[in-house]
Amino acid sequence: MKCKSIIATVILTLLPFSTAFAEDALNSGDTAWIIVSTALVMMMTPAGLALFYGGMSRYKNLLNTFAMTFISYCLGSIIWVLWGYTLAFGPDIGNFIGGLDHLFLSGITVNSLSGTIPTYVFVVFQMTFAAITVALVLGSIVDRMKFSSWIVFTILWLTFVYSPVCHWVWGGGWMHGMGALDFAGGNVVHINAGVAGLVLSFMVGKRIGYGKEAMFPSSITLTALGAAMLWFGWFGFNAGSELAADGVAASAFLVTNTSAAMGALAWMAAEWYVNKRPTLLGIASGVVAGLVSITPAAGFVDMKAALVIGLVAGVFGFYSVAVLKHRLGYDDSLDAFGVHGMCGIWGALATGIFANPSITEGAAGLLYGNPGQAWTQFVSIIATILYSALATFLVVLVTRVITGGLRVDEDDEIKGLDGAIHGERGFEIEF
Fold first, then answer.
1. 86 touches 171 (CB < 8 A)
2. Distance between CA atoms of 409 and 405, rounded to whole angstroms?
3. pTM of the prediction?
4. How many Cα atoms sit within 13 Å of 287 on the Cβ side?
5. Per-residue pLDDT for 21 more than 50?
C-alpha cells in the first residue's frame, strides 16, 4: 500500500508537467479536425459560393460569375503562401501589420507547430478564409466588371485590405490587444467584404437597365444548392476556428446550425408577411444571413443566444435587401453588403452582448456583467468599416489606372459576359 501511495504521489506531482508538455505537442486529433475543416472551407468558395452567386446572376453571366469566383480562390491560394500569411501572422509591427519573416513561408518547416497543429495546416486553413473573403466582394459587381480588373483588384485587396485587418484581429494586432472578440470572421471576413463590395459597386456604377427592367436569376435551384453547400462548409469555418477538437468546437458547431436554421425561418416569415409569399431564394438567403451573424460569436455564445442571433439576422437581412438597398439606391448585384456587411455588423455587436464566459473563459458580454465588451465590439466595427472603405477606395483607384477602367464595354454587358469574355455559354437555351 505504501508503494502505491508513493507512485500516486509521483504521478500527481508530474501531472501538471505532462499536461503542459501535451499542450505544446502535436495533437493528432486536433490536426485531423483542422485538416477536415480546411477542406470544408475550401469547398465553400469554388463550389458553394460559385453556385450561390452563379444561380443569382443572369443567365448570360453565369459562367463569368463562376470564373471570377474560381480565380479568386486561385489567386488567394498563391498570394497567401507568398506574402499574405506573413503580413497577417508575421511578427507584429506597430500593432498594424505582420513582418516579412515568413515571406514565401520561410522559417516554417514540417516540424513547426501553431498550438497543437502543424503550422502548415494553420497556413492553409487561414488561406481558405482569405480566398472566400475576397470572393464575397464579387457579389456586389456581378454582371459588369472586367475580368482583368477583378484579377488586379483581388491581388491588391488581399494584400492591402484583408491582410492588415486579419492581423489586427487574429495576428496579434491592436484589435486583439483591446480585447475585440471575433471567433471566425465577423470583422475580418464579413464586415470587411461587405463594405468593400459596397464601395466597389458605387465606383463601378449601376448595371445597364437597373431599376428599369427585370433582372431574373439564372437558376434558383443552383443558388439553393450553393446555400446548402455553404451551410455544410460553414461547420469547418466556425467549429474549425477553435483550432482544436474540443467542447468549444462542439458548441460552435451546434450554434452555427441553430442560427442558420433560425435565420432561414425568420427571413421566410418576414418575406411571407411583406410580400405574401415565401420564396426559396429568401429561405436560402436567410440561411446565409444566420451563418454570417453567428460567425463572430460562434465560440463565445450558447444555443439560446444563437436562436436570437439567427432570428434578428433573418429579419435584418431581409430588411437590408428588400428595403434599405432600394431607399439608398445602390446596385449591389447579389446583396453582398446587405447580407454579409449588415449581418456581419449585427453578429459582431451580438457577440458583445451574448458572449458567455461558461463557453470560453474570459469572454463575457453585456448580459454577463461586462458592458465594456459591447463598446469594444462597437469600436472594432467602426474601425473595420472606415479602414475597409478607405483602403478599398484607394485599391479601386489603382486598379482603374492599371487596367484602364473597371467596367466592361456597353455592348459586352448587353450581350453577356459569358460569351463576350469567355466565349462560352452557361445555358444553351436563352430564357
1. no
2. 10
3. 0.93
4. 20
5. no
